[in-house]
């Protein structure tokens, strides 16, 4: 039997698995997908996330991961809306990093393996096993449909925004469809800069981040309420030809290529409605699949139960606009590891209760600020005034970018 089962090999799950396994804990890491896998994301780690990786990985490991993949060091933000612009640099000596998520996540999962965790891919957790009022394991299905039961002293839900673990424990619910987002890799973008750029206007926000190798991540979301989220999703889907149920696998692959061509054109056209992007995207092309995602309001009633802990997005999520999710995923793994060790040694769940309280106090103020920024971004005139205001106040601007960058 394992000491700990971790569900989900994203940054939170893999880093926690590695930290625990390196301390001699018997860890089983279950991942639904075959790795490496793509994930809808702006693919930009803020300075807090970069610093967290440098802390949680053994000396030299992060440098080795970085040199094994294309990436760009990110030095700040550029926000534009109409004629308003805000340029903000991270504090001296601190930087973020943009890279292909599947490569980073794969490197972290490999690191968990090397540290001694057992990793099983293509194993989707569907249910929790309860014994005497405690979570005692999980029921999972392989890609071939084979059913398996795994038991452990503690189960960790690190399975992302749509966490099956949180749902099965009755801890989570979705809020309204406030926003949908579409994300793609784009080549041929003119004048890529070593910063995250956010363009707002015409009811949309578009993020650009250079991920190395001449490619950029482009993520587009609508800014207004649920009606336009649904309309945007419908417009995206109208650009895809559905798969007919009686077609062959080859037909389905061809249909999927056709639908992706339509979706790529739709995404580039939609982003190009913003004048600066129309110019910078001339001659640009999407590479690979356009991914769609939403809703984002994942509400969690509690992040802990007897025998169970939630970390990363599984512990609650609000919005991708400020690009802080990977930092929170890594930090929650870093915070959880010593408390899980204490819980295993003492046989008591008290450290897990403490973790839930620490996680709440660590992240709650930043989440409140994130909600304020996200709300402001939906009101064009207010947003433009905010950009101009912070642009003219260097101290306030530096403070804001340091907080959003989780630099403090
Ligand atoms: C559009 C968008 C843009 C974003 N941009 C940024 C950004 O630029 N910067 C940033 O810091 N953050 C960004 N985020 C947030 C960031 O992607 C997440 O916060 C981060 O990935 C959370 O990591 P995690 O390990 O908690 O979960 P995830 O990375 O989601 O990993 C969860 C893992 O669990 C697996 N899984 C799911 N269900 C099961 C199951 N039932 N059984 C087994 N395995 C399962 C999944 O396959 C996945 O591998 C963005 C999010 C979105 C939606």
Largest sheet: 8 strands, mixed
Query: What is the CATH homology-level superfamily of the largest domain?
Result: FAD/NAD(P)-binding domain
CATH fold-level label of the largest domain? FAD/NAD(P)-binding domain
Enumerate how many helices there are, as a single number: 12
Strand content: 25-35%
Rounded to an integer, what's the Rg over CA atoms? 21 Å
CATH class of the largest domain equals: Alpha Beta
The separation of the N and C termini measures 40 Å
Principal-axes geometry comes out as: globular
Secondary structure category? alpha+beta
- Contiguous runs where pLDDT drops below 50 for at least 5 residues: 241-247
Each distinct ligand: flavin-adenine dinucleotide
Helix content: 40-55%
- The tally of domains stands at 2
* CATH architectural label of the largest domain: 3-Layer(bba) Sandwich
Find the count of extended strands (DSSP E, 2+ residues). 20
The chain-level mean pLDDT equals: 92
What do you see in this structure?
The chain has helices at 11-22, 47-56, 61-67, 101-115, 164-168, 226-238, 249-271, 275-280, 325-346, 350-377, 380-391, 394-404; strands at 2-7, 27-30, 44-45, 71-74, 76-81, 84-89, 96-99, 118-120, 123-131, 134-142, 147-157, 172-174, 181-187, 196-201, 204-212, 215-222, 285-293, 298-300, 304-305, 308-310. It has 408 residues and is an alpha+beta fold. The chain has two domains: 2-74 and 98-175 and 297-377, 3-Layer(bba) Sandwich (FAD/NAD(P)-binding domain); 181-293, no CATH class. The strands form four sheets. Strands 1, 2, 8, 9, 10, 11, 19 and 20 form an eight-stranded mixed β-sheet that branches. Strands 6-5-14-15-16-13-17 form a seven-stranded mixed β-sheet, sandwiched between helices. α1 links the parallel β1 and β2 (27-30). α1 runs parallel beside α4 (101-115), α1 runs parallel beside α9 (325-346) and α2 runs parallel beside α9 (325-346). The longest helix has 28 residues, at 350-377. The protein is globular, with a radius of gyration of 21 Å. The protein starts with a strand and ends with a helix. Residues 241-247 have low confidence and may be disordered. The site of flavin-adenine dinucleotide has 39 residues, from α1, β3, β9, β13 and α9.
């Amino acid at each position: 039997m394992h000491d700990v089962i971790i569900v989900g090999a994203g940054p939170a799950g893999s880093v926690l698995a590695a930290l625990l396994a390196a301390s001699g804990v018997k860890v089983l890491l279950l991942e639904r997908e075959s790795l490496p896998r793509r994930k809808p994301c702006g693919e930009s780690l803020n300075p807090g996330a970069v610093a967290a990786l440098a802390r949680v990985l053994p000396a030299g490991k992060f440098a080795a991961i970085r040199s094994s993949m294309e990436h760009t060091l990110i030095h700040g933000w550029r926000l534009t809306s109409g004629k308003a612009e805000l340029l903000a640099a991270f504090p001296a000596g601190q930087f973020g990093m943009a890279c292909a998520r599947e490569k980073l996540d794969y490197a972290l999962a490999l690191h968990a393996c090397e540290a001694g965790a057992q990793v099983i891919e293509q194993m989707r957790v569907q249910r929790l096993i309860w014994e005497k009022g405690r979570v005692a394991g999980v029921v999972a299905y392989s890609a071939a449909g084979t059913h398996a039961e795994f038991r452990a002293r503690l189960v960790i839900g690190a399975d992302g925004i749509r966490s099956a673990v949180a749902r099965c424990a009755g801890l989570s619910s979705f809020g309204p469809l406030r926003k949908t987002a579409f994300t793609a890799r784009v080549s041929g973008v003119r004048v890529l800069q070593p910063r995250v750029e956010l363009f707002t206007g015409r009811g949309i926000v578009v993020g650009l981040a250079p991920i190395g190798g001449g490619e950029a991540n482009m993520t587009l979301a609508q800014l207004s309420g649920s009606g336009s989220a649904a309309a945007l999703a419908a417009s995206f889907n109208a650009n895809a030809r559905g798969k007919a149920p009686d077609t062959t696998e080859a037909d389905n692959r061809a249909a999927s290529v056709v639908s992706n061509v339509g979706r790529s054109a739709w995404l580039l056209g939609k982003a190009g409605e913003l004048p600066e992007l129309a110019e910078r995207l001339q001659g640009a092309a999407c590479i690979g699949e356009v991914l769609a995602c939403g809703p984002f309001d994942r509400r969690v009633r509690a992040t802990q139960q007897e025998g169970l802990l939630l970390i990363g997005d599984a512990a609650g999520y609000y919005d991708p606009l400020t690009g802080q999710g990977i930092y929170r995923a890594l930090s929650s793994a870093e915070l959880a590891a010593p408390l899980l060790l204490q819980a295993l040694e003492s046989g008591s769940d008290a450290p897990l209760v403490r973790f839930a309280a620490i996680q709440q106090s660590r992240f709650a103020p930043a989440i409140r600020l994130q909600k304020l920024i996200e709300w402001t971004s939906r009101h064009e005139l207010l947003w433009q005034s905010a950009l101009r205001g912070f642009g003219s106040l260097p101290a306030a601007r530096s403070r804001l970018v340091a907080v959003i960058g989780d630099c403090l």
